[in-house]
Amino acid sequence: MKRKDWWNGYNPQNLTENQFILVTTTPNSAEDTGELIPALKKFNEKYNTYPKNNLADKWYASEENYNFLEKNNIRSYIPHQKTVVNLGDYKYEETSDTYTDRENNIFTFRQNIRKKRKEKMKTKIKWNTKREWN
Predict the structure, then answer these.
(1) Is 108 found in the same domain as 70?
(2) In 28-77, which ranges are E strands?
(3) Whole-prediction pTM value?
C-alpha cells in the first residue's frame, strides 16, 4: 500500500431507530447507492415488514432506490444529487401540477427550497422520481 493513511475495505450499513441498530450489513462495495435495497430487504426478512420512514444522505439517491421505496410505501427523505433546474426550460401544467421537459417527460413538483447566500437567493427544485412517458 503506497498511501500512508488507512482505508476501510468494507462499507457497513446500519438501519437504526432511536439510536438502536436494528439491522446491519457489511458489503465490500465503496458506493452507498446499491446498498439501500439489500439493507431494507434484510430488515423485511427479520421483522416481516418494511420501515415506515427512511432517512439517508444524497449518496443513496438513485431512481432504483426511489422506486423501491415508493413501491413498498416507505416515506423517503433522500436529497437528490441533481443540480439547480431552470424552470424556464419546462412547460408547467397547472391542473396536474406537473412540468414537462423538451422530450415530453413529465415530472411532478415536490418541493421548492430556497437557500440564502450572502448576495442573492438561489432556488433549488426537488423532483418526484416517478416519471411518466408520453
Answers:
(1) no
(2) 53-55, 75-77
(3) 0.56
